[in-house]
């Protein structure tokens, strides 16, 4: 489905790691984000005022017994992609300004 952009991980007493992902679906305009558990069918609505990390942590703890060391990481390839896109946008903007002000 979407591209995972952020991971929430937590660990069980036995050291097993469970992950909940935020997936961004670009088929929508504007894009939509979904919270999806990597281990079960859990995918709650994000139309809530609750913090996503709280929802993810609660699910990991209650459904998978992973209550330790809740952490979040940005997806590595997504982060790199943004680092590449930003300079390109800057170059295009500068080129545009040069053309307009000439
Ligand atoms: Zn789950």
Describe the secondary-structure layout.
Elements: E1 3-11, E2 17-25, E3 32-37, H1 52-64, E4 68-74, H2 76-101
Antiparallel strand pairs: 1-2, 1-4, 2-3
Zinc ion binds at residues 37, 39-40, 42, 59, 63-64.
Shape: elongated
Q: Give, in order, the helices and strands.
A: EEEHEH
Strand content: 25-35%
Radius of gyration: 18 Å
Quick check: average pLDDT? Answer: 91
Helix and strand content put the structural class at alpha+beta
Low-confidence stretches: none
Characterize the largest beta sheet: strand count, sense, and whether it forms a barrel: 4 strands, antiparallel
Strand order in the sheet with the most strands = 3-2-1-4
The molecules bound to the chains, other than polymers, are: zinc ion
Distinct helical segment count = 2
Number of strands: 4
| Structural domains: how many | 1
Q: Note the gap between the termini.
A: 45 Å
Kindly describe this structure.
With 102 residues, the protein is an alpha+beta fold. It has one domain (3-101). Helices cover 38% and strands 30% of the residues. The chain is built from two helices and four strands, in the order βββαβα. The model has no long low-confidence stretch (mean pLDDT 91). Residues 37, 39-40, 42, 59, 63-64 line the site of zinc ion.
């Amino acid at each position: 489905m979407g591209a995972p952009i952020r991971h929430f991980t937590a660990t069980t007493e036995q050291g097993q790691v469970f992950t909940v992902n935020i997936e961004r679906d670009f088929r929508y305009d504007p894009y939509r984000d979904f919270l999806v558990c990597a281990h079960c069918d859990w995918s709650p609505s994000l139309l809530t005022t609750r913090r996503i990390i709280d929802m993810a942590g609660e699910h990991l703890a209650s459904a998978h017994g992973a209550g330790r060391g809740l952490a979040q990481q940005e997806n590595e390839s997504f982060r790199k992609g943004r680092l590449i896109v930003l300079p390109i946008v800057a170059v295009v903007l500068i080129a545009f300004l040069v053309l307009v002000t000439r």
